[in-house]
Amino acid sequence: MAFExxxxxxxxxxxxxxxxxxxxxKNMDEMLKEVRIALxxxxxxxxxxKEFIENVKTKAIGTDVYTKLNPSEMVVKxxxxxxxxxxxxxxxxxxxxxxxxxxxxxxxxxxxxxxxTAAKLAYLMKNKxxxxxxLAACDVYRPAAIDQLQQLADQIKVDLVNLGTNENPVNIAIxxxxxxxxxxxxxxxxxxxxxxxxxxxxxxxxxxxxHKVNPEEILLLTDxxxxxxxxxxxxxxxxxxxxxxxxxxxxxxDARGGAxxxxxxVTGIPxxxxxxxxxxxxxxxxxxxxxxxxxxxxxxxxxxxxxxxxNISEEEAKKTVNKMMEGKFTLIDMMNQLKQVSKLxxxxxxxxxxxxxxxxxxxxxxxxxxxxxxKNFEIIINSMTPYERENPECLKYSRKNRIAKGAGxxxxxxxxxLKKYEQTKEIMKQMKKMKKGGKFPPFxxx
Amino acid sequence: MGLFKFLKxxxxxxxxxTNLEENIPQEVKEEQVKEEKSLEKYDQALTKSRKNFSxxxxxxxxxxxxxxxxxxxxxxxxxxxxxxxxxxxxxIIEELLETSKEKNITNPKDINEELVDKMFLNxxxxxxxxxxxxxxxxxxKVLLVIGVNxxxxxxxxxxxxxxxxxxGKKVSLVAADTFRAGAKEQLTIWANRLNxxxxxxxxxxxxxxxxYKGIKAxxxxxxxxxxxxxxxxxxxxxxxxxxxxxxxRVIxxxxxxxxxxxxxxxxxxxxxxxxxxKAFKEIIDITGIVITKMDGTSKGGIILAIxxxxxxxxxxxxxGEKLDDFEEFDLDKYLYGLCSELIKDE
Lengths: 446, 346
Description:
Chain A is an alpha/beta fold. Chain A has 19 helices and eight strands. Chain A folds into three domains: 4-86, Four Helix Bundle (Hemerythrin (Met), subunit A) (Up-down Bundle); 102-298, 3-Layer(aba) Sandwich (Rossmann fold), CATH 3.40.50.300; 305-437, Signal recognition particle, SRP54 subunit, M-domain (434 Repressor (Amino-terminal Domain)). Chain B is globular, with a radius of gyration of 22 Å. Chain B starts with a helix and ends with a helix. Chain B is built from 13 helices and eight strands. In chain B, helix 9 runs parallel beside helix 10 (238-254). By secondary structure, chain B is of the alpha/beta class.
């Protein structure tokens, strides 16, 4: 994901250090030089990088790293700790008022993703936190911005204060607040127009909204692709408004998001959420430690576990496991498994979270062909009769032929599904044996 | 030598000259007035950027009597903070170091002059003569507009349409962003304001089919220029990049002549801008880049980084929110806008 390239760089550097028996000042310097370039290439602010390198160096020298048995591990730890530090050291969730609506205001430059994020945030609060949410469209400047929010609000079935483009944004905010109080909403989310931080009249308008509605949270949207200048942007917005947090958008791209990290470091404002996709449910809580792990190529198993818990029903999983253990694994079970996996998101996004060495190296073509294959499997299994799915061994030439025709595939495709099924079944058998023997096989990818 | 001198001559002397010569033909005068207006726009829009770039350079040169290692380190910082990119910066600093040794330059001002020179040369080195304007060698000319999310594609399209409308071209639009909520409506509002034709698709309709319809409609209504808007897509999304390929295939079925394809890049983008250009270039022939949002404090160093790595020219530049805040990219003016303080200072 966002830090993929940086991760790769770090792995290389760490490998270099690992290969050497002793850490000397010389190779330490060389490594730090590469770390420096990697961070700069990741758009981390120049001054932040400088501080980072100095801190790592001081700590490394201060902790006897040169005499430790395994100095490379020590350095990795120091770099990681520093990174977590840089990312802000605790996760900060939003706080909600008990007896009155919590007002959240989204601000930022043009195109940073405010409107999309407003809808994502509303969706998250409505569905995950079970809040009664009200949206307000205060962007009267960008053509069709209100249309956009209206469409999204309809889609997620959240109420929207839509007063058109002839009303003043400050008035819209005030009226939305009144409605939120009168109709007992838990949360009010204000979407504001994008603006440059140097545009004083427009910044003043935001300040005005702030004074009139007194929001609990003012969140700045930052693009993960933003360059060195983003620190300047965050600083100025903070000076005008007093920000309470940052949401980083477009983290599903290959931008390394370094600038957003520097924002947290330079201004001390915590990153609260990250946008990880175009769909409405692609907003995640930001975890600095997990992100640092990801940067260092240690995978992000915790996020994967969260995803699994959210998306896979326990009962389904238990059923499948039990069946597996009994050795009664049918094509239907295999398809269910595939479906469960696809609920977690694209293979690409899952792979990025896995601590598999070289996971970054799998090309996007390979991944999309694997995804295509998963789809093909589903199509082919769907073309079978229920009897065939339960008893795959009955599949001979003519049945295969019929299935292939029905699915619009070839016989070879059908055979591939059956082969995969046999392989999976074989693995199940082995697992069963090992379970009996008290051993569990090591995890070899999936 | 001396781009400095060149810029100075070009932009400062001209003002004096026009004052002196009273009897130049009207056309030339008009041309000059237009030139000056455009220069003014660059100058204004880049004011904030300049504060960060050339004032910093200027202040730096005043703090040092002679250049030394620290001087170059600070120079490196200024360039990197302008988003010029690590490799670009390191290369140019190395070259500067060599030149300063060779020519024995120790005066910071001279070094800065060398620096601006090199930035200019590096840019030019990467390509032949750059033709910014769209050439209307076939009718209709198709312009496909692509880019990641939120860079300003739709607004840029409105500006481009307006730009060529002013030049007497008949322009029509195609709203092939069928994914983002409100995208179609946004472009429609612009089309109505500009009073031009627009072809729209339904929600989630295959964008390629909308493009096809739009091209047909554009040919039928005798357009000179058909501009196709596409959904924003992150360059690492394989399926969306495939979709873009399909759109081009469909367009090329209808149009035999080469099409223009502009990649829109946000001027505040960091080093990912280079990756964007690279990835899009791999699947589609990008004929030019439009840099948007250059009226902020961002220095747009990404222009130089992209040029250095990929050789794709910047054709236009967005300098503000209004329809008219849109100019042909002119490196002289850009550098002048960034460095005019240094130049005036001499």
